[in-house]
Automatic annotation (TrEMBL):
UniProt-listed Gene3D superfamilies: 2.40.50.100, MetI-like, Nucleic acid-binding proteins, P-loop containing nucleotide triphosphate hydrolases
Keyword match tRNA processing: no
Major subcellular site: membrane
Name of the protein: Molybdate transport system permease protein
Provenance organism: Frondihabitans peucedani
Annotated membrane topology: Multi-pass membrane protein
InterPro entries: AAA+_ATPase, ABC_SmlMolc_Importer, ABC_transporter-like_ATP-bd, ABC_transporter-like_CS, MetI-like, MetI-like_sf, Mo/tungstate-bd_C_term_dom, NA-bd_OB-fold
CDD domains the record matches: TM_PBP2
Annotated ABC transporter domain residues: 255-496
TM segment ranges: 43-71, 83-105, 125-146, 167-188, 225-243
Family membership noted in the UniProt record: Belongs to the binding-protein-dependent transport system permease family.
Subcellular locations according to the entry: Cell membrane; Membrane
Superkingdom assignment: Bacteria
Length: 622
């Protein structure tokens, strides 16, 4: 009894498909004369084998590039063509034969050009098979290409590979198993083609036409041998397709020679000249508009912004991967606006660190055009990947994958490396370890980097200059210290993860009232009655037991009550309440003697205070 109706329904169809074949096999086994000596059978068999192989070869040579183009096209024309090329699948094969006669029949222009040899010939069979079987390959190959990660193509482009090389060396190997299944299906369909063939080329007999002729002249017994042959081939082909493919690990001479690679003398990378990046970008991606410019300052910059703010689009534009982007990009002193992604010599590590499937670590790091194997080995060792040279991407941990992606980009000695949230998918300890590793490389090799991140801490750690963006526009840019200590707006303060962002009203030009507490704010040019937002970074706050006088020169503070003390291992996070219900968070590495409920004073250096006009109050104004 099947466990579910689904199993029952599926089982019913399987039975329907298998029973007739089983019935034939039983009859064939007990049959006295199986008809293998029938004149013409061998010729028909070979005719089918040869023509199906020729038509499949034609379909592969023409159909794989077509499928690739269809998978990559986004326009209406591509979509329309994608539907049209499936028509022969929907057309009854006999009708396919009829439409083909309009083009290659003996009285057509083409037919006359070839002296009528396009019908009633092997060529006719090939034409019929090609027409009917092509969609099988195009559909299978298009699905295989469409399933590829587009980041692989970007990666190969930034490693210097031109479109044809990317097709041959990246897309084809990655889509090979899907295409292989399509080729098998196409060959079987061509082999079994009858309807179009019988109209276009009745002679010489293909195996299906021969079977039909036998059926009409000798009845069922005369069809046993050709049917058995076709069934045998089909079973063989299906078994071949289902057989586990040998591992696609491609152990080229390069990947086998791990020890040889190790034997190469260490070669330090070319000394880097710091390459600050300057750009003015104007691009549209779908409905999103990017309008961003930045002048070259430091050679280690971070682009910080919330999800969907345009960080990745910016990075793709800098790499030369964004079609239709206007504006300019300068690397160091060079204008590279008109330089293609292949020639920009910019390393690019896409979000998630795309790696080429089926290639070992050593092959990945040597994949860049013109990569010096000695430099690749140097980066392998520097990024602690030695010993993993023979591993495939699927055999690496997340942190190792990121290191390989980094080593691949660095091995081509790029002028600058673009990193798209390189550590976001990793767990905290690995993320921390890789951040420190990248920082070490920045310091030791003078690496120029543009880092995309939504983590303010990561931006602070790995960049000297920070760009804060949202909605494709620049909110603030400047040296790290300036941006963090003086956020240009509440929105920037929020994106920088500053927790102490409070509303208040200026009660004079020198003080703000928040929840009943009077907060000193000298020198901010606020006008009495103005609604404001203000903020102080947690590490700038001092919290002391009420009455314990200031020992470090900071002014005496506001009265506060301790509401939370959280030990964080090496530091302490304190939450205090000021006024009726406003809370401030303080962060300190000092020993904390305070407890929840203690009366305290909270103070800060007045220069640490940021004050802005409250934009929500402005909108609310009549
Ligand atoms: N190929 C595309 N077609 C249409 N819209 C796109 C395309 N790529 C990105 N976008 C849109 O552009 C905007 C910016 O995307 P982008 O990937 O740069 O964001 P992000 O800041 O990197 O976000 P995240 O941190 O989530 O990766 C988003 O609104 C996104 O939907």
């Amino acid at each position: 009894m099947p466990r579910s109706p689904l199993a029952f329904l599926g089982g019913l169809l399987a039975l329907f498909l298998l029973v007739p074949i089983a019935a034939f096999v039983v009859r064939f086994a007990v049959s006295g004369d199986r008809g293998f000596q029938t004149p013409g059978l061998a010729a028909a068999f070979w005719t089918s084998i040869v023509t199906a192989s020729i038509s499949t070869a034609i379909i592969v040579v023409l159909g794989v590039p077509l499928a690739y183009a269809l998978a990559r096209s986004t326009g209406g024309l591509g979509r329309a063509l994608g539907i049209l090329v499936q028509l022969p699948l929907a057309l009854p094969p006999v009708m396919s034969g009829i439409v083909l006669i309009y083009v290659v029949g003996p009285y057509t222009w083409l037919g006359e050009l070839f002296d009528g040899r396009l019908t009633g010939s092997l060529a006719g069979i090939v034409i019929a098979q090609t027409f009917v079987a092509s969609p099988f390959l195009v559909i299978a190959a298009r699905s295989a290409f469409a399933a590829l990660d587009p980041a692989l193509d970007d990666l190969a482009a930034t490693l210097g590979h031109r479109p044809l090389a990317r097709f041959v060396r990246v897309a084809l190997p990655a889509a090979a198993s899907g295409i292989g299944a399509g080729v098998l299906l196409t060959w079987l369909r061509a082999l079994g083609e009858y309807g179009a063939t019988v109209l276009l080329a009745y002679h010489p007999y293909s195996l299906p036409v021969f079977t039909s002729v036998q059926f009409q002249s000798a009845g069922i017994p005369g069809t046993q041998a050709p049917t058995a042959l076709a069934l045998g081939i089909a079973i063989l082909a299906v078994l071949l397709g289902a057989a586990r493919r040998p591992s696609c690990r491609r152990r080229s001479a390069g990947s086998r020679s791990t020890s040889a690679a190790r034997a190469i003398l260490p070669a330090p990378p070319r000394p880097d000249t710091p390459t600050p990046v300057a750009f003015a970008l104007d691009a549209r991606v779908g409905a999103f508009t990017l309008d961003l410019s930045h002048g070259a300052g430091a050679h280690r910059i971070a682009i910080l912004g919330p999800s969907g703010s345009g960080k990745s689009v910016t990075l793709r534009a800098l790499a030369g991967l964004l079609d239709g982007a206007r504006g300019s990009v300068r690397l160091g002193g060079d204008d590279v606006t008109a330089v293609s992604a292949e020639d920009r010599h910019v390393g690019y590590v896409a979000q998630g660190g795309a790696l080429l499937p089926g290639r070992t670590v050593l092959q990945q790091v040597r994949f860049g055009v013109g990569t010096d194997p000695a430099v690749a080995s140097w980066w392998l060792r520097t990024l602690r990947l030695d010993g993993l040279e023979d591993r495939l991407p699927s055999e690496l941990s997340g942190g190792q994958r990121q290191r390989v992606a980094l080593a691949s980009a660095l091995s081509r000695q790029p002028r600058v490396i673009l990193l798209d949230e390189p550590f976001s998918a990793l767990d905290a300890p690995v993320r921390e370890e890789l951040r420190r590793e990248l920082r070490r490389l920045q310091v030791e090799t003078g690496l120029s980097t543009v880092l995309v991140t939504h983590d303010p801490e990561e931006a602070a750690m790995l960049a000297d200059e920070i760009l804060v963006i949202d909605g494709g526009r620049l909110l603030q840019a400047g040296p790290r210290r300036d941006v963090f200590s003086r956020p240009a707006s509440p929105a920037v303060a929020r994106l920088l993860g500053i927790p102490n962002l409070l509303r208040g009203v200026a009660v004079s030009g020198e003080a703000i009232e928040t929840a009943g507490a009077r907060v000193p704010a000298p020198g901010h040019g606020i006008a009495e009655g103005e609604a404001v937002l203000w903020s102080v970074r947690p590490e700038r706050l001092r919290v002391r037991l009420r009455g314990a006088g200031p020992a470090d020169g900071t002014p005496a503070g506001l009265p506060a009550t301790v509401v939370d003390v959280a030990e964080l291992g090496t530091s302490t996070s304190l939450t205090v309440r000021i006024g009726v219900d406003a809370e401030l968070r303080a962060h300190t590495t000092d020993t904390v003697e305070l407890a929840v409920g203690d009366a305290a004073d909270v103070s800060w250096d007045p220069a640490a205070l940021s004050v802005w006009t409250d934009p929500s109050a402005e909108h609310a104004a009549p």
